[in-house]
Amino acid sequence: MIAQIPFWQRKRLHEMTAAEWESLCDGCGLCCLNKLEDADTGEVYHTDLACRFMNADTCRCTVYPERTRHVPGCTTLTPDTVGDYHWLPYTCAYRTLAEGRPLPDWHPLRSGDPDSVHRAGVSVRGRTVSEDAVPEAQWEEHIIHWVLS
């Protein structure tokens, strides 16, 4: 019997079910970092400041189903909007698949282990500060350069 080809290899993003789409998230937490945009150039800078609703240990949103109600500017990725978010890290599965690249070995869908993203050093676990701990006027001091873009 031939092994079934995984959905992420046989379907385009817009063909995936809601559950398949959501399972692409590797739990790295990079999209939950606050970003600053240069008004003149449009360049986006990541900070080490995590959204107040991100669990620092799991790197997952604690209010995910209601996140846009709690944080109106929270990113909502769809197959049609993935390309609009040029700041998504190179390692993001949504970006990876949209660009036609394969999921890396450490991705939980490949490894079968939700902690593989953390062991691979791709997640923000242990590298963030809550946005609540830093006045917004000081956010520029928290710009980081370790996000792979």
TrEMBL record:
It holds the Pfam family CxxCxxCC. Belongs to the UPF0260 family. This is UPF0260 protein BTO32_08230.
